[in-house]
Amino acid sequence: MEGASQADSYIDGSKLPKIRVVVRKRPMSQKEINKNEQDVVECFEPQTVVVKELKEKVDLTKYIEEHHFVFDQVFDEAISNQDFYVQVVQPLVSALFLGSKVTCFAYGQTGSGKTHTMMGPPGDSEHKIPGMYLLAANDIFALMEDDSMSDFSVYISFYEIYCGKLYDLLNGRKLVHARENASQKVKIMGLTEAQITSVEETMEVIDFGLSSRTTGTTAMNSDSSRSHAVLQIAIKQDNGKLFGKMSFIDLAGSERGADAFDSKKETRMDGAEINKSLLALKECIRALDQSKKHTPFRGSKLTMVLKDSFQGNKCKTVMVANIGPTISCCEHTLNTLRYADRVKELKKENRDTSNSLMLPRQSNNSKKYELKRKNSFEGK
Ligand code: ADP
Ligand code: MG
């Protein structure tokens, strides 16, 4: 109950807490349905998720252990990208226009729905159902039409972090380097920043970047589950001064971190790097949440390039924990929820799940939002 009304009150962005951790469960795939796989994840909106784990005793008798978690918001498989956007990302867009640095991470095992959330399901541009990137761009360009924004422009960068190295997806996957300057600002030297003026242009730029992501990764004999994809939309004043920045990070598959212990050297190195960056990320978000003076952003390339998004009261971060529904994902699902739980520890009183479990299911109130919208995505 609380969660839905909370989300509504975040619409103006100024009341948004620094960190929000939300869970999104994906639906069963056709393949899983065909295999008659069991759904072991139950979401009790607005805040509780329960995972049923099948365990075995020493005498081989089986029993079910229930794991309860409480987050800022929990969404089951019925939520569409559009409704998820309204609840989770639109408040960030609103904060962006108040001059904030806002960040949305998608965390989870490979196949849990990170890219579906960020990019939308695959399809050609024209028929594509948009994900967070384009839904946000849609609102950003609607809000840019306001007279007060006439001296501002929008720029986009799109890059990949693979094995601790940065590759510019808008420039043929060129290797670029991050440097910390004398005033301790981190800058990526030579990274393409494309000026964009419409949602259509945003879509073209993203498609362009993704095409170079695919070819680049095939050539390197790796896949997108081993890299973090970072899409940043910056609003700058005409004099070049940064006003606000929105970052979307489609993280490497969280299970890849375990490859750190693989016998193959290359896989092991990839895994170690992913492991390091996901651990550093957790620590940086925790530092932001607890308003710590020291942010351990040097712990990985990922956290280093996001340094300015982890510091100061104006930074707003949402961590989306994407999870699969089935028994075969169960171990990874629990790992994801435990990670998310550590990113932001909710206050004690929220941890008592006995009440939330008895709540009737809430439909998300997604109609109440005030940002101006263009209609280009409606009805798709
Ligand atoms: P990840 O990026 O985490 O590896 P994907 O986003 O590629 O995972 O999702 C894996 C598959 O599941 C894709 O075919 C995707 O379209 C589908 N999928 C994921 N989330 C959803 C959802 N919420 N609704 C419908 N299909 C989904
Ligand atoms: Mg993906």
From TrEMBL:
Location(s), subcellular: Cytoplasm, Cytoskeleton
Region feature Disordered, mapped onto this chain: 348-369
Occurrences of domain Kinesin motor (ranges): 18-346
The Polar residues compositionally biased stretches are 353-366
**Any keyword Secreted?**
no
| Principal cellular location given in the protein's record | cytoplasm
Q: Name one process (GO BP) from the record.
A: microtubule depolymerization
Which residues bind ATP per the record?
G108, Q109, T110, G111, S112, G113, K114, T115
Recorded GO molecular functions are: ATP binding; microtubule binding; microtubule motor activity
UniProt keyword annotations, A-Z: ATP-binding, Cytoplasm, Cytoskeleton, Microtubule, Motor protein, Nucleotide-binding
| One GO cellular component term noted in the UniProt record for this chain | microtubule
Q: Which family does it belong to?
A: Belongs to the TRAFAC class myosin-kinesin ATPase superfamily. Kinesin family. KIN-13 subfamily.
Q: What is this protein called?
A: Kinesin-like protein
**Organism from which the protein derives:** Euplotes crassus
Q: Which residues of the full protein are shown?
A: 1 to 380 of 662
